[in-house]
Known about the structure:
The protein has helices at 78-87, 105-116, 135-147, 166-179, 190-202, 210-214, 217-234, 246-257, 269-272, 298-309, 353-362, 369-383, and strands spanning 5-15, 20-28, 31-36, 42-47, 52-55, 57-59, 90-93, 96-98, 123-124, 127-129, 152-156, 182-186, 238-240, 262-266, 315-316, 401-410, 429-439, 442-445. By secondary structure, the chain is α/β, with parallel strands linked by helices.
Amino acid sequence: MPEHFDLVVRQARVATASDVFESDIGVRDGRIVSLGRGLAAGAREIDAAGRVVTPGGVDAHCHLDQPMPAPLRMADDFDTGTRAAACGGTTTVIPFAAQEKGQSLRAAVDDYHRRSDGRAHVDYAFHLIVSDPTPQVLAEELPALIAEGYTSFKIYMTYDDMKLDDGQILDVLAVARQRGAMAMVHAENADAIEWLTKRLEAVGRTAPRFHAHARPMLVEREATHRAISLAELVDVPILIVHVSGREAVEQIRWARAHGLKVFAETCPQYLFLTAADLGIDDSYQGARCVCSPPPRDASNQQVIWDALNDGLFTVFSSDHAPFKYDAPEGKKPGGEEVAFRHIPNGIPGIETRMPLLYSEGVLGGRITLEKFVELTATQPAKAYGLHPRKGSIAIGADADLVIWGEGERVLRNADLHHAVDYTPYEGMRLRAWPAYTLVGGEVVWDGKDFHPRAGRGRFLRCGAPTLLPRRFA
Ligand code: URP
Ligand code: ZN
Ligand code: ZN
């Protein structure tokens, strides 16, 4: 009696983090149930015709509908943000339930569920952002939320409304150690940035390009080293997010050489943008590329490529932070061209993350196909407790798949599916794009059209990170 499949993807060149092999993929009830050649007919069939099929991407750092101080507002909510994710080959997103100072962490999570319920087109989990580690948060809320499947949280060493001091960082890292959670660290020295910003303002240097002058590499290097030291003191793994260049990479290499469990993330903006994209004159256009840490220069881009290749980086995320350029709730707060300190930080990239890395990394001969899968899907799923359900093509995994089409196309914001009015990568030539994206065995993107189904995206509770053997107290 032949096996019954809801879907068979035929003649796939399946890529995982360790292997590339020819196979059909049999899907039943949203999961992969068979791999092999010559599978029996499925109720539906897609002929991959020898094209590469990777696991759907896991974007482990993106911001969707995160509450902002007025007049700011993120352009993408869970509807538009996950639509764009799907069209770019990402099938799981992990945005942030952000605690405001004075707010309970639980209230932030409840609010974020209200924002996401029934609106997502791909599966999603939440990281927490801990900005107010009160005794109640440390002793009760954070441990309870970790136990309920919110097993990772981000902490900030910069931004007035988010930053923690070193004592607070040690407190939250101690909870991460005790409860087996993953702490993500935004490493930039807040006081040094403020000092530099005031000096730039005093001489009228307030154009967008001076954002990069206020956040030189050394403020990231110092904070990266401090975060590593604090984690060493507590004896807990950490993951440094959005690493931008050589000096931070050197700190992470130093930590690894000393046996410390330090993971690291980088993002497209550190491969494909430089500080020149913030402006070579005082034009406001550069506000489009204001993000923190800022993009560096060509030699730092090369350091990031090398570190992607040699295993320094654990994950490759978008850090999608969607603010419109020409909007009073976006890069022109209240409709004004403001001084750089008031420009909302962050750039869009949820749809372009996978195609850019595939095009320039894999087809550009800089990284292997297996490394691409590792960085965009498998390791993000492991780092945040979603593997093996997510991040791999294996029996029992969710049938979240990307079938890649090759061929040149020019990247145009008009062709993207987010709600932002620009892409920083306008005009770049892509060599590959998802021809199909499947979520749970359903086609959500066919290379031309997006196929929504209300409530398709499910909330995922995360387990413990599985990048390391479990050894917590
Ligand atoms: O500039 C950035 N990266 N904005 C998003 C928020 C963050 O710090 O990741
Ligand atoms: Zn950050
Ligand atoms: Zn971010």
